[in-house]
UniProtKB/TrEMBL annotation:
PANTHER family: DNA UTILIZATION PROTEIN YHGH. It holds the Pfam family PRTase-CE. This is PRTase-CE domain-containing protein. Belongs to the ComF/GntX family.
């Protein structure tokens, strides 16, 4: 097959050379509700076209590659005093796979346990391309099922306004669980 980025012959959808050149993660941090830190690995503008594959069959492979380069690397060097759970936000299977579940699965380690179907939105409203006012007027209304571990890493693919993650934090706090921080592939606010 051909690499999607450089079109050279490759055994992967994105060749090793392009992964090193374009998908070597950097760390971008910002704080949201209750001073919770959000750690992102890419600038949204740099991987926008790759992120937009999430609703296609190809997206499974692209998200898997990006997750291995960022989330798996993060998990391999992450240390904590006790076991914690990684929870993908609204990991519904709407495209034949869940893109947030792909990200969370790469966090599995001796310290981090990825748990699925734990945080689901009651509504199906899409926030894609919507402003902060729209997001605030149309909350996700999350339902949370308790996890094995009380301390949690929240996982999503993109942070724009932070409203989805903030709503998730509020829901988890109501259930006496503690969100430690959030991980996303990309931050839309980084220039």
């Amino acid at each position: 097959m051909k690499c999607l980025l450089c079109e050279s012959i490759s055994f992967s959808h994105i060749c090793d050379s392009c992964q090193k050149t374009f998908l070597t993660p950097s760390i971008y941090k910002r704080k949201i509700l209750n001073n919770i830190e959000v750690i992102s690995f890419y600038k949204y503008r740099d991987i926008k076209n790759l992120l937009h594959t999430k609703h296609t069959d190809l997206g499974y492979y692209i998200y898997s590659i990006m997750a291995k380069n960022s989330f798996r690397e993060f998990a391999s060097s992450f240390e904590w005093q006790e076991k914690i759970s990684a929870i993908p936000i609204d990991d519904k299977n709407s495209s034949g796979y869940s893109h947030t579940a792909i990200l969370s699965r790469q966090l599995n380690s001796k310290i981090i346990l990825a748990e699925f179907a734990k945080l689901r939105a009651k509504n199906d409203i899409s926030y894609s391309g919507k402003n902060k006012e729209f997001r605030m007027m149309n909350p996700r209304d999350f339902i949370f099922s308790p996890t094995k571990n009380k301390e949690i890493i929240l996982v999503d693919d993109i942070i724009t306004t932070g409203s989805t993650l903030s709503q998730a934090i509020t829901t988890i706090n109501r259930h006496n669980h503690t969100p430690l921080f959030c991980l996303t592939l990309a931050d839309a606010s980084v220039k």
